[in-house]
User: What shape does this take?
Amino acid sequence: MNYSVLIPMIVFLIIIFFIGYWSSKKLAGSSNFISDYFLGGRELGGFVLAMTMVATYGSASSFLGGPGTAYTMGFGWVLLAMTQVVTGYFVLMILGKKYAIMARRYNAVTMIDFLKARYNSTAVVLLSALSIIIFLFSAMAAQWIGGARLIESLTGLSYQSALFLFAISVLVYVTIGGFRAVALTDAVQGAVMLIGTLILLIAVIISGGGISNIMQDLINENPNLVTPYGAEGNLSAAYVSSFWILVGVGVVGLPQIAVRAMSYKNARSMHRALIIGTIVTGFIMLNMHLIGVFARPILPGIDVGDKVIPLIALETLPPWVAGIVLAAPMAAIMSTVDSLLLLVSSSIVKDVYLNYVKPDASLKTIKRMSFGVTGILGVIVFLLALDPPDLLIFLNLFAFGGLEAAFIWPIVLGLYWKWGNKYGAIASMGTGIASYIALHFYNIANGNLFGVHTVTLPVVLSLIAFIAFSLLIKRQAYDYNAILYRNEKQA
Amino acid sequence: MKETDWRFRVAHREAWIGLGLALFNFIWWFAFAYGLGNRPVEEYTYIFGLPDWFFYSCIVGFLVMVVLVTVVVKFFFVDVPFDEEQEEGR
Assistant: This one.
């Protein structure tokens, strides 16, 4: 075991626990448990908001899988990764102020609350809860595998023990701290990612003898590595561009991101978060993927992509620095997992149980359910991750694409298009998910249809379905202010 | 029927700005990456050691977006209240 690497990581984990514990103290004195546990009481400031979005979004695939693929593919994959810069500003600008205002009017705490109030439909709620639970499960499993692999490669523990260690650390503080703990630790973890990637990039460049030198080595090995077309020349412009939907603009439809867009305090926090988020996202993505490419001449012949970053960090940095730097992917994975865990449990407790099973549950029951469900979910994911499939990044992207195809139009058009109704929303989600799954298997068997990523077509189809069904069945303009009159009458 | 909430007009305009920025971002990224990148490798030039298509598309492109987002947020985005209470005093 490599103690000089492990100690900084353990110190890092302890700090994270401490923050979780501290937030749970705040939670205990809270008057509105649900809003606080699942949303942090809508008072995030600009910096925390930006960081929690980046940290939630930046996951095992940005820190392990992505750079690992860049190592194999060369600069074409860095180009692809940079499509993610758009998420830094796009999500907050598109959902933006209208979402923040409507979420408050509806008193919405989760994305499903918003959909429920907007479309006033049980089918919409159950369909969304179901797709969140199913798709985010596969996303979570992918993250847990990444986390366990990382611990495995650092400690030499067996995969099973590493997974166990990881599961315990995550579960403890998600169950105690809730959203505020997750958002706050995200901010710390985001800062760790930012600094960690910069240190590692510099170390890799120095160890490779400068950028020009590295470039020459890459060209000598395979000139395709420095083109936008990938090592085999098979990354087409259409395919890479379709990632603008998958990891760029489509991110608007991801529930774990969308819920953050209703958690900020005021317009000033949002404005700050826009700028910080853009800078931090771009910086981290650029650094991590460049590290992946630059690692190739320094450490040739790594065959498991997920191991590139841990190995190159151990190679180029003094052990204790490597420990701090490797806390970055650990942070990314943990912060993604916590938010997913919290989201899935909020779908079960809040959106299904409280809405349909027992609307009059006492606060005590709700609390016990929230902690209990979060814990049980953790155990189930743990069991699933024990025997994991190999391709981390694609498992993760499967969940991404499916959720985007399901939710992007019901959210975005629900906000801005008054003709959107529940029939459109149901059709859109159904079409999105069904066509995504069908196309996924078609593409595996026959190669990508039209040469673009699986997500592209379902997003288009679900748009058509949303518009067509909204206009064809019981067409009626939605009044965004109607809820105000209702509230006034009650008052 | 009340007239549209003034905050919604602000929100709608800002959403369009977001869409515009993303479109601009895409065009910049695509034009440099594939405009410069489809030459034979021998013809690439290198800026700070990086291939020119990558430097302009990803590094300059990223910096341009940071500047644009900052300018847009500072000068075109409006601070609006999110809660209804402030609204009723109007």
Notes: Residues 264 and 293 of chain A are 37 Å apart (CA to CA). The first helix of chain A runs from residue 3 to 28. The mean pLDDT of chain A is 83.
